[in-house]
Amino acid sequence: MSSYRAPRDCPVCSSRLETTQLGCPHCGTGLVGHFAPCDFCGLDDADLEMLKVFLASRGNMRDLERHLGVSYPTARARFDDLLRRLGLAAGGPASGAGTADAAGRASAAAAEADRLATLRALAQGDLDVEGARARLGKA
Length: 139
Hints:
With about 140 residues, the chain is mostly helical. The chain is built from five helices and two strands. The chain has a two-stranded antiparallel ribbon with strand order 1-2.
């Protein structure tokens, strides 16, 4: 019998699903009720592996970087994304379902684009240091 990972969110409305039934594959016993959700059960295999490596290395981000074969900032970003999906980061879950969350991400992306444009203009000589500081809000 194939075993599938249970979905975490409702495919219709994107709300968090709750476990209401458990069954024993050996004897057929079934339990019906409301059971506490498992935050980690909805993670894909790559996220679970990353979490295992992080825990096994006692939180050493450099070990995670080496395991993933990526740079430190990339490893950190992936781990931060994992924390958001688990609801453990300041940004909360990254489900994409909330319009406020999407608006916040769009605003952050726009701010980052403005920052990069300011730094490019400074590097190309189109903007002086004081002008760049003013644009970056550090005047």
